[in-house]
Amino acid sequence: TQLLEQSPQFLSIQEGENLTVYCNSSSVFSSLQWYRQEPGEGPVLLVTVVTGGEVKKLKRLTFQFGDARKDSSLHITAAQPGDTGLYLCAGGYTGNQFYFGTGTSLTVIP
Amino acid sequence: ETGVTQSPTHLIKTRGQQVTLRCSSQSGHNTVSWYQQALGQGPQFIFQYYREEENGRGNFPPRFSGLQFPNYSSELNVNALELDDSALYLCASSLAGTVLSTFGSGTRLTVV
Predict the structure, then answer these.
(1) Going by fewer Cβ within 10 Å, which terminus of chain A is more open, N or C?
(2) Phi and psi dihedrals of B24, rounded to 5?
(3) pLDDT band at residue B93 using 50, 70 and 90 as cut-offs
(4) Of A37, A86, A51, A70, which is closest to residue B106 (Cα–Cα)?
(5) Shortest CA distance to A30 belongs to which of A73, A72, A89, A93?
C-alpha cells in the first residue's frame, strides 16, 4: 500500500514541452523529497522540501510543497530527452523513514 | 567519498530458500534503510537500522530481518522466499538527524 499517489503514472511528451507531476497524500509529512530513477539504478535525490508552501527551483525543475504538507508538485520547463526517467516523491517522518509514491514514468521524445 | 555499495547486483533463488543481501553505507553515514521495489512501482520501506538496532519497520512480515554492524554496514535477510519477493532491493544510508539519503544501485532478486 502506497501512502502517496502520483499522477500521471505515465507521461510521454515532445522535447521543449512543459509538464507537471503531482504527488498527493492524506498524511502530513515532516519533509518531502523528489527523486529521479533510471533503469537498473537506485533513486537519485533531486530536492528536499520541509516547509508548507515552500518552492524550490533546480534549473528547469520547480518543486512545491503544499501548504498543509500533504502534497507536492514537480514542474519541468522545456523538457529535454535527458529528463527521461522515473520520478518518485517520498514523504518523510522523523528518523529518515520515507514512504515513496507510486512513481511517474516520463519519456521525452527528441 | 564512496557512495552506497550493494552486493550482489543480481541473484536468483528458489522458492523456500533464504537469501542475504549486503549494503555498505556511505562514508560518514550511520543509518541504513532498506526498501523493496517491485517492477513498475515505487520503493516500499522495509526497515531502518541505527546504532545496530531496528529503528522503524514498514508493513513486512518477520521473515524479513536485518542486521547492522559496528562499521554501519548492513544485511537484509529474507527467509522462506516467495515468488512475490522478486524485486529490486534498495539500501539507503543517511546521517541521523538529517534528511539526506543516498541510495545504492540495488540488488535484483528473482525467486523462481
Answers:
(1) N
(2) -105, 125
(3) very high
(4) A37
(5) A93
pLDDT digits (tens, 9 = 90+) for A30-68: 889 999 999 888 999 999 998 999 999 999 999 999 999
Chain B residues with CB-CB distance to A under 8 A?
Answer: 4, 31, 33, 35, 40-45, 48, 50, 55-56, 58-59, 90, 92, 94, 96, 98-106
Band the pLDDT of A106: cuts 50, 70, 90. Answer: very high
Sign of the four-CA dihedral A105, A65, A3, A89: positive
Q: Name the pairing type of β-strands B10-13 and B107-111.
A: parallel
Residue of chain B minimizing CA distance to A103: B42
Q: Which three cell numbers stand for residue B20?
A: 542475504
